[in-house]
# Entry
Amino acid sequence: MELAEAKEKIVEALTKKAKSKSKFYFNDLSKILELKPREAKKLVNKLVEDGVLEYWSSGSTTMYGLSGTGKQAGAEHED
Amino acid sequence: MAKHKTPLLDQLESGPWPSFVSDMKQEAAVRAKNEKNIEYQIPQDAVEDLLGVLELSYTDGTTHWKHGGIVGVFGYGGGVIGRYCDQPEMFPGVAHFHTMRVAQPAGKFYKTDFLKNLCDLWDFRGSGLTNMHGSTGDIILLGTTTPQLEEIFYELTHKFNQDLGGSGSNLRTPADCIGEARCEYACYDTQDLCHTLTQEYQDELHRPAFPYKFKFKFDGCPNCCVASIARSDMSFIGTWKDDIRIDQDAVAGYVNGDFPPNGGAHAGRDWGAFDIEKEVVGLCPTECMKYEDGKLEINNKECTRCMHCINVMPRALRPGKEKGCSILCGAKAPILDGAQMGSLLVPFIEVNKEDGYAAIKEVIEAIWDYWMEEGKNRERLGELMKRQGFQKLLEATDIKPVPQHVQEPRTNPYIFWKEEEVEGGWTRDVNEYRKNHLR
# Structure
């Protein structure tokens, strides 16, 4: 899968759910991409590098979200 | 004069042990005086406010920290844990107070100038408070603000030749015992294996794509000084295949009292004369030893590598020569389902530096592929093993069941036949069967 296609799929799926949910597990993303985890990882990492996605970590678990979405960004004054 | 009154914390200092409260007060006082004229990059009174918020938590019986965040350094999904105080106006010094995990060197070998420089960096750009070391083994730097993160990361990687450690759904910073550097029991070079795998799996360490945390730990021998068997998803414990080496003259030396047992440990009181029957032979968990006519014998086939006899008489007994490691999987702390010890997956595997530990990497990667595909969100490997059964792990790693996989006969019969493995499958001719077996 090309990066552009992956970006489109992820942005579309995450935007659709944005009202109820802003953070997603890695498994959710690989399901959206319909790829095996290792292949999905390469694309997801690229999307983080490009600033499309961002990591959110509790310290024990890591989740992904569209950059700048959710309460966190505003609440932490990181935006 | 302290910024906040802390009567409950003060009480913690009254016990017989050194108190972290005293340490924090000391650091708060040093920062207030600032005799070194440090240009503190985070609030000078951060530690005062940390004491204040902790006192408030004791008063309220609740935490005032918000958990987690989006902070990190560019390209890394771990190593920084966002921490925010939910009373920022009362305690502005710790409004943003992130934790950084820094990978510790293999075996935790440091030079003093490294530690001094690290402390100087942390005094300058952080709270000055450290935790040496966290449970995972990392150097934990407690408390800094977001703008400092990239600065600290740059210094660490460019001047200290040190990297951030793992956090979140990553491979966590691999940890090992001191191994062959100081210990004659080590059955493989724990530091080399730990360091090599840390370098090899940089992507897994820094870019989270696992269902949850994953820990490697390396113990050079079954004494398990880093407790890998209890707290790592994959534990590598040094072992040997052949017989324990016995020096009968040295055994006689222990019996005659020429050498102190246990290398002189526990010498604080008089335990009486050394009794090999009571202190060694009688304590062997598999009863595989005997001492007759001044000669010690070991039935090595029954030995479970408990290390007790070797620990008591290190001059007389040594691990065998054919060394390698065992791999155990699935240990974890009790967040869900209770604590779990590791289950033995590979009884013996070669630890071969020459080929870059190819055999070990093969097992690791097969396990990751399995867990990444089958593991639920926030499910540790040990929980997946429990949910799907040990047999699935064996299939995923292409390892044949062996007797060592069974803890005790008939208590964990997790190996089930499959139809294709049984001659004739599950179908049978009932009439043929009834000829010999009445209803």
